[in-house]
């Protein structure tokens, strides 16, 4: 057994050992664990509507942190974007939604939600705002009231991803056609 020492004579190593002994048998509540160590919430499959893929996403994102990008229409300055998104955040706060807001450009902001299960309700609120151009949530772009008429198309995937995919396919096709060594290998 270790020698009994007066607490006033403890050094940093002794204090660290004492802390480890206390924490060894300490039960940490699930709510205090970091998000990646928490067990996933059980999914009630009876609430899932097979016709609506959003219902599956709502249930799988419940209790997890989620971020959505919001674009302000027009050509606002960063200060205007700050003011407009602050009003939206205030409206969401009054409706009891815990949302944090980060400005990432002159017309763009990130809304971070502690519980991703409410993301689609918040998205519906945002796209009904006059100055909202679009909301990007889980790779889907939802046009808002402030979107240009040519941009209003129901629920499109990010155009950058589709464009990159097409460019990569064109590049790989042109490489196959132009690469002489590849043609010789095919003939062999």
UniProtKB/TrEMBL annotation:
<feature type="region of interest" description="Disordered">
    <location>
        <begin position="141"/>
        <end position="188"/>
    </location>
</feature>
<keyword id="KW-0256">Endoplasmic reticulum</keyword>
<comment type="similarity">
    <text>Belongs to the MESD family.</text>
</comment>
<dbReference type="GO" id="GO:0016055">
    <property type="term" value="P:Wnt signaling pathway"/>
</dbReference>
<feature type="compositionally biased region" description="Basic and acidic residues">
    <location>
        <begin position="146"/>
        <end position="188"/>
    </location>
</feature>
<protein>
    <recommendedName>
        <fullName>LRP chaperone MESD</fullName>
    </recommendedName>
</protein>
<keyword id="KW-0732">Signal</keyword>
<feature type="compositionally biased region" description="Acidic residues">
    <location>
        <begin position="23"/>
        <end position="32"/>
    </location>
</feature>
<dbReference type="GO" id="GO:0006457">
    <property type="term" value="P:protein folding"/>
</dbReference>
<dbReference type="GO" id="GO:0050750">
    <property type="term" value="F:low-density lipoprotein particle receptor binding"/>
</dbReference>
<dbReference type="Pfam" id="PF10185">
    <property type="entry name" value="Mesd"/>
</dbReference>
<keyword id="KW-0879">Wnt signaling pathway</keyword>
<feature type="region of interest" description="Disordered">
    <location>
        <begin position="21"/>
        <end position="45"/>
    </location>
</feature>
<keyword id="KW-0143">Chaperone</keyword>
<dbReference type="InterPro" id="IPR019330">
    <property type="entry name" value="MESD"/>
</dbReference>
<dbReference type="GO" id="GO:0005783">
    <property type="term" value="C:endoplasmic reticulum"/>
</dbReference>
């Amino acid at each position: 057994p270790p020698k009994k020492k007066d607490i006033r004579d403890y050094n940093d190593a002794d204090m660290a050992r004492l802390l480890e002994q206390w924490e060894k048998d300490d039960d940490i509540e699930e709510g205090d664990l970091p998000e990646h160590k928490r067990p996933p919430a059980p999914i009630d499959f009876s609430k899932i509507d097979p016709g609506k893929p959003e219902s599956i996403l709502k249930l799988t994102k419940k209790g997890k942190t989620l971020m959505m990008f919001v674009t302000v229409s027009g050509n606002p300055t960063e200060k205007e974007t700050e003011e407009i998104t602050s009003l939206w955040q205030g409206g969401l706060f009054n409706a009891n939604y815990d949302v944090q807001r980060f400005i990432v450009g002159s017309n763009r902001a990130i809304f971070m939600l502690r519980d991703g299960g409410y993301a689609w309700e918040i998205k519906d609120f945002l796209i009904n705002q006059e100055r909202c151009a679009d909301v990007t949530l889980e790779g889907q772009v939802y046009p808002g009231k402030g979107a240009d008429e040519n941009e209003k198309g129901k629920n499109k995937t990010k155009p950058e991803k589709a464009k990159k995919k097409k460019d990569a396919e064109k590049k790989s096709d042109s490489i196959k056609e132009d690469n002489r060594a590849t043609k010789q290998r095919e003939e062999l």
